[in-house]
Design a protein that fits this description.
Blueprint (H helix, E strand, L loop, with lengths): L1 H13 L6 H15 L4 H9 L13 H21 L3 H7 L2 H7 L1 H12 L6 H30 L5 H22 L11 H6 L3 H9 L7 H7 L3 H12 L5 H16 L5 H6 L4 H15 L3 H14 L5 H26 L1 H25 L6 H18 L4 H9 L5 H30 L3 H19 L8 H9 L6 H12 L4
Keywords: Membrane, Signal, Sugar transport, Transmembrane, Transmembrane helix, Transport
GO cellular component, one term: plasma membrane
Main location: membrane
Amino acid sequence: MALCMSLCVQLCCTSGWSINMSVSQVIEKHYGRSLGVWSERTAVLSENSTEEEGFSEAGQHPAVVMYWSLSVAIFSIGGMLSSFLVGFVGDLKGRVKGMLMVNVLAVAAGLLMGLCRMWQPHIMVISGRAVMGFYCGLTSGLVPMYIGEIAPKAYRGALGTLHQLAIVIGILISQVIGLDFVLGNDDMWPLLLGLSGAPAILQSFLLPLCPESPRYLYILLGKEQEARKSLHRLKGAYDPTTDLEEMRREKEEADREARVSILSLIRSSVYRQQLLVALMMHLSQQLSGINAIFYYSTAIFARAGVGQPVYATIGVGVINTIFTLVSVALVDKAGRRTLTLVGLGGMCCCAVAMTVGLRFQGEYSWMSYVSMSAIFLFVSFFEIGPGPIPWFIVAELFSQGPRPAAIALAGCCNWTSNFIIGMTFPYIQTWLDCYVFILFAVLLFGFTVFIYLRVPETKGKTFEEIAAVFHKGRKKSPKDATELQQLKTSTDA
C-alpha cells in the first residue's frame, strides 16, 4: 500500500510535466489574444498580404515566444529552488506528513492554471507552473527517500525504479488526454492544465493510510515502539527484531556521524568522489538528449514524414512505460552499473542512427523508418538504466550523515540540466539541423566511459562496502581526519 501511495505522489507531479506541441499552439493563441498582439483576423490578413503586417501564427510573435518560453522554463526553475528543501521538509514532520503538507502547492497550482481564463492566461499559467515546479522539486526528493527507507535490501533497486515508472505513466497520461479531441483543444485546455492538481486531492485521502518510515521514526526520532508498529503495518504480522536491530546499528552509526550541510559537502574532499559520481549520473540522465525527445518528439516525427506524429509520440510514451517495467525486473539482478552502461551505450548508437536517418530521409524514403526506429530504441535504452537508476543510487552512495545534502545537490543538478536543455535545444537544433543528435552522441560516449571507469556496482552492498570501494587505494591522511571532525561541527546552511 505504501508503494502505491508513493506512485500516486509522483503521478500527481508528472501529470503537469509535459505539454505537447498541439496543445502549445492552442495556448499560444490565447497568450496572443491576452497580450493584444494577435487575433484570427490579423492572422488571415497576414496570410493574404504580401507585406509583413502581422503574424499568421501566434507563436511567431516575439512577446508570445517570450511568455511561452517562460511558461516552459519556470517549471524547472521551481524544481531547482525547492530541491534544496527536501531534507528540511522530510525531517520536519516525517516523510509521509511532509508529502501530505506539500499537496497544497499542487492544488494551488492546478487552480491557477485551471482558472486562467478568469484573468490574464499567460500570467496565471506561468504562476501555476512555477508553483507546480516547486511542488515537483520537493516530491522528486521525498518519494525516493521514502521508498528507499521502507524497501527491503533485496528489492531496493526494483522499488526505487518505481519512482521512474510513475513519471513515465504520468507523461503517458498527459499525452493521451492532451489530444485535441480529448482536452487539448481551444475550449478544454484550461481543464487539461488544471487537472494536474487533481491527483493531489486523491493523494490527500490516501496518504494517511501509509505508514511512516520506520527508519525515520527510529533513527531520527528514537521512537522504537512507533517504528515497530510501522513495520507491522508494512509487512504484516512478523517478528521485527532483526529489522529493529539493523536500525539500532544504523542509528549508532548515524549518531557518530554528523549531518553534513550542503556547503560542507561541496567543500569536502572526503566525499568528493561519491559526489562527482552522483552528479554525473544525474547529468547523464538529462544531457543524454532524452528531454529533446520528450519535448519535441512530435516535431521530430513530423520531420521524419509521419502522417499523425502525435500518435507516434504517444507510442514513445508506451515504449517508455514498458521498458521501465523491464528495468524494475532487471535492476536487482543485472545491477545498476551494468544497466546504466548498456543504456548509455545503446543510446549513443541510436543517436548516430537517428542522425543518419534524418540526414538521408530526403534522398531515401526508407530512411524515415530508420530515424523512427532509432527514437523508439533510444527511449527503450534510456528506461533500462539511465532513466530510473540516478534517482535512487545517490542514497546508496552516501551514508546517513551526508545523504540529505547529496540528494539535494543531485536534485538541483538534475533540474538545472533539465532547464538548460529545455531552453537551448531549439537554438541548437536550428544551428546543427539534422546533426543535432551527434552532439548528444558525443556526450553519451563520454558518460559511458566515465561510468565504466568510475562508478562501482552497488547491488547488494552495504554503505560501508560502497564507501570502501571509493577509498580503495586512497591513503587516509591526517587531513581527512581533521576534515571529518570539522564536518561534524559545521553549522553551514
